[in-house]
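Late entry, written up from scratch paper. The run itself happened at the end of the previous shift, but nothing got recorded in the book at the time, so transcribing now.
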Amino acid sequence: MPTQIPDVKEKIGAGLTYLTLGIWGLIWLLISSRSYFDQKDFIRFHCYQSIFVGLLFMFIPQGFAILFSLIIQIIGLIPLSSLITDALHAVHGVLQTIFHYGLLALIIYCVISSLFGKYTNIPYISQIANRMLR
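Output as recorded:
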């Protein structure tokens, strides 16, 4: 990762990208596309990474919901399987809650580290964001 030192504006902008789940990062990248190479890598890295974290936050829970809905509907075809489907509803609720709180903790971690001027290292997502900087 680059060794540029970000100023206060860039740190706050990087923190805001995570708080808006990448929407501010996308807007920032679109607005500043004219001077693309004049931007520091710090803000661009956090913009890209916040976009991917936002996509995770939006689409993974929906995938879980679709998967559990299909499983519950298939098992619901079996007579007297209401006990199993009720248990699956409970498991789905617990998994959704764990996933949401886990992603919330990840977002808070990313905000705090970006406000300190550090690059966060999230497996796979940070690698993709680094590739986008090239």
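Helices lie at 8-19, 23-31, 41-76, 82-115, 125-133.
(Scratch paper discarded after transcription.)
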